[in-house]
Amino acid sequence: MMLDVQELSVAFTDRQEPFTAVDKFSLQMDRGEIVGIVGESGSGKSMTAHALMGLIPRSRAAVTGRALFEGVDLLPLPREALRQYQGRDLSIIFQEPMTSLNPTMRIGKQVEEALFIHGKLSPGERKAKALAAMELAGLPDPEGLYRQYPHQLSGGMRQRVMIAAALVLRPRLLIADEPTTALDVTIQAQILDTLKDINRQEGTAILFISHDLGVVKALCSRVVVMKQGRIVETGPAEQVFHHPREDYTKLLIASRPSRKKLRGGGEHE
Ligand SMILES: Nc1ncnc2c1ncn2[C@@H]1O[C@H](COP(=O)(O)OP(=O)(O)OP(=O)(O)O)[C@@H](O)[C@H]1O
Ligand SMILES: [Mg+2]
């Protein structure tokens, strides 16, 4: 088993009232699997992802439970030891693609960033790896884009740059936190196809976070439904989508605007 999360909890202590954002979250993932996490806004999806990546400062929250990656519990690791895993073994694409790219830095340098932390490569070797990752992320003309700045790219292209940066070290697990939410449906579908291709070609496991159960169904074999920090339902994506057990899951499915509704007009969001 690649990832074995046992009763992961995140309890924030930085506000007046202590707040449990993630409450005993458990999940097992094999290599090459694509698993989805769905749930309404505030249900704890991002905090689960951040906790797995070791991105929640210990001064702000107590992170408890276990998160075994290839048998090693990541949660108690000191910062330096954790850094060896970040980017190389597991990697994350953040929810806000526009704020995650540095506007003053060329695309190529941003894709290469993780390469500076892991190992000593020559500039030529770094560039080769960056171009390969950009190609894998479905960016046209990587060589040309390498020297450009984020503002010269469309939203979809910028998201592909984020994907390339996350993949540059070929991690075994990619955590994608609402990677397409800000994009229009056509671009969204294209990026989902790219993630599928990456999974097939590279065997990269993907933990895919979304509030949209329909998107998750198209991509994931299994899905975890979260509500108020807890898992309320989990199972094969087909089953959860077509035969949901929980009212909350039914609500999530119903809240997705259908094509029929959109055609009918007036009823959509
Ligand atoms: N520093 C903090 N202190 C206290 N509570 C916090 C802090 N950061 C986040 N939270 C709370 O944790 C809960 C879970 O947040 P999280 O970002 O994981 O939700 P989410 O499921 O990713 O939502 P969305 O779909 O909007 O991205 C929210 O209720 C949020 O207000
Ligand atoms: Mg979130």
Description:
This protein has 269 residues and is α/β, with parallel strands linked by helices. The chain has a domain of 78 residues. The chain is built from twelve helices and ten strands. The strands form two sheets. Strands 6-7-8-3-9-10 form a six-stranded mixed sheet, with helices on both faces. A four-stranded antiparallel sheet has the order 2-1-4-5, with helices on one face. Strand 7, helix 8 and strand 8 form a beta-alpha-beta unit. Helix 4 crosses helix 5, helix 4 packs parallel to helix 7 and helix 5 crosses helix 7. The radius of gyration is 19 Å and the shape is globular. The C terminus is likely disordered. The protein binds adenosine-5'-triphosphate and magnesium ion (MG). The site of adenosine-5'-triphosphate has 16 residues, from strand 2 and helix 1.
How do the helices and strands line up, and which of them pair or pack?
Blueprint: E1 3-12, E2 19-29, E3 34-38, H1 45-52, E4 61-69, E5 72-73, H2 79-83, E6 90-93, H3 97-100, H4 107-117, H5 123-136, H6 142-145, H7 155-167, E7 173-177, H8 185-202, E8 205-210, H9 213-219, E9 222-227, E10 230-236, H10 237-242, H11 247-254, H12 259-264
Parallel strand pairs: 3-8, 3-9, 6-7, 7-8
Antiparallel strand pairs: 1-2, 1-4, 4-5, 9-10
Helix pairs in contact: 4-5, 4-7, 5-7
The protein binds adenosine-5'-triphosphate and magnesium ion (MG).
Residues 45-46, 95, 177 line the site of magnesium ion (MG).
